[in-house]
Amino acid sequence: MSRSTKVLWPQRDVIAGHPALDFLNTVDDPGRSRRHNRLRDWPALMAWFEASGVLSRAWRELFETGESADRHARILHDILTLQQLFYEHVQAHVNGTPQVRLGDALNARLSQALGRAHLGQSGECMESGEYMESGKCMESGKCMEWRVASMSPSRWEDAIALEIEAFLRTHALDQVRQCDGCSWFFIDHGHGRRWCRPHVCGKRHLRKRKRASSTRLKP
Ligand SMILES: [Zn+2]
């Protein structure tokens, strides 16, 4: 991992238990405003792909060349729209909204990504010019998964859409919990976890509690 990737997306912020949920946790928002998104430009997006393990650095370096700044802006806009659609879906579940169905817009985006993808074995270099992302499967080369059509102009958005599709297909949203201090999500393994990151939201909560008790003690 490069130095800039470490600074922007330290591994201690990759906490959700699945890249699809980590994709929602790219905001700094103690007030749950979701206004300050760290996915603010193309280098930030590329660094996130690397830090999250969704695409390896070799893959992205191979396919990101020759694209204009305008196109980068359009891709980033599409990816942030996808993020908002998925966020609303997960948030509705966490809020306890009964029988949340996948919204039409999100469903359409996932279907389009699947329509362009192909099934391939994990962890292998398949055809010439197509390099596989790394680290997706424990049984590398033994099981199959949907692979991004690397020559498609939609490859960046598709890479994330396929993570979301895989997550929705393999995880119950009942397992997802939201941090008590911000809007970040994580998979709950039944240990009563309250915070996305103890060093951020856990610490902030302790500081608040300390301040409140010292105010109460004042004469
Ligand atoms: Zn938090």
UniProtKB/TrEMBL annotation:
Residues 176-212 form the Zinc finger CGNR domain. InterPro entries: ABATE, ABATE_dom_sf, Znf_CGNR. It comes from the Bacteria. Transmembrane segments: none annotated. PANTHER family: BLL6575 PROTEIN. This is ABATE domain-containing protein.
